[in-house]
Amino acid sequence: MKRKRTQEAEAETTTDSRDWTSLPPELLAKIGEKLPIPHRACFRATCKDWCSASLPVVIPSPWLLFVIKNGDTCAILSLPTRRSFTYSLLPDLRGVQYVGSQAGWLAVYNKNMDASLINPLTAARICLPSFLTLPKFDLVDGSCVLPHLGRFSYYFVTKVIFSANPTTHNYIAVTLYGIPRGEIAYAKAGGDKWNLLQTTSTQNRSYEDIMYHDGKFYCMTVDAEVFAFDLSGVSPTVTLVAESMPLGLTHFDYHIPCSRLRHIHSKYLACSSTGELFLVLRHVILSYESLGWKAIMVWRYNPRRQPRWEAVKTLGNRSLLLGINNAISIPTENFPGALRDCVYFTAAPVRTTVNGSTEIIHSIVVSDVEQGRWARANSQLQPHLLPPVWFTPSML
């Protein structure tokens, strides 16, 4: 009996100390072929030997994730190639609300208001402070409530963006929350709560979109005023990037007064790889009667002009991907599956007629900037699974 136990112990020791990198390349290739595509990416990232032995994962990003609510899987579509596949969700990504996506990470929170950043390929997880610590926010009988409103819905957090390559010990996150007044708050690694993001010059603003670029957090108000916050120091510092337009904006021959700018148009911030800042306006609810420049319009920020937002009729060989993600700008000359000079919106409300009655449906919408027209995306892009999220995979 003693000898048998000794043999078992030796076998366990041999198994534990086995050098898995020494597996024959032919065997590694066979294993890699059997893995689903996202798992194959993780397999190749394990070490140099495994990477060279297995087939490359040629699925250009960005991807579009369609998540089944309270389900165990998601569908992933590569926009450049239109290839799609399914992927088993991590337990931490099941039954949660998705509120952000950036550089391979997803921002989510659950029904208990616990917030996290999760990399769905590496399973890395960073716990953010609970949304119960958001400023100007209380719970009444377990429901989300702001002081000036009654009971609040589960969707009161609009968006979360964060610094590049976040880690548990080094991250900065900013969230946009509150309806109808948009507040912004930030949290840093090591902190246990969200802090209201404001300075003396930015008090009493109502915000509509947020974006991260080149180490700064850009926040846009409902009046198209843009501030850049630097949160790398002990206290936030702020720079006014674009002033609000007291008389509204003019898009070529079409003028948008301030009242329409504030209440009728949804606003998005985007930035190109070269640092150009874009402002995109979209009717809050689209209808097929509202074709042309009035439905979706694009401005480029030009600090040398007055007014500094100038209307543009083309994005060139680029397209913008907008939604709960940090806005993505992609070159389209090498992406045959992506339309050039377009703006993609996820879950845009569209007024349509179904069986003779008017309904509002949430659809993926593509706007051709040069032609000044928009349309619902083809059936392959339709969000039959919710919510759709733009995602750029990363193994970091």
UniProtKB/TrEMBL annotation:
For this UniProt entry, which segments traverse the membrane? none
Q: Name one Pfam family in it.
A: Beta-prop_KIB1-4
Query: Please, which domain of life does this record's source organism belong to?
Result: Eukaryota
Q: Where is the KIB1-4 beta-propeller domain?
A: 78-347
Gene3D superfamilies found in the cross-reference section: 1.20.1280.50
According to the record, the residues making up region (Disordered) are: 1-21
Q: Which InterPro entries match?
A: F-box-like_dom_sf, F-box_dom, KIB1-4_b-propeller
Q: What is this protein called?
A: DUF295 domain-containing protein
Q: What's the source species for this entry?
A: Musa troglodytarum
Residues forming the F-box domain are 20-53
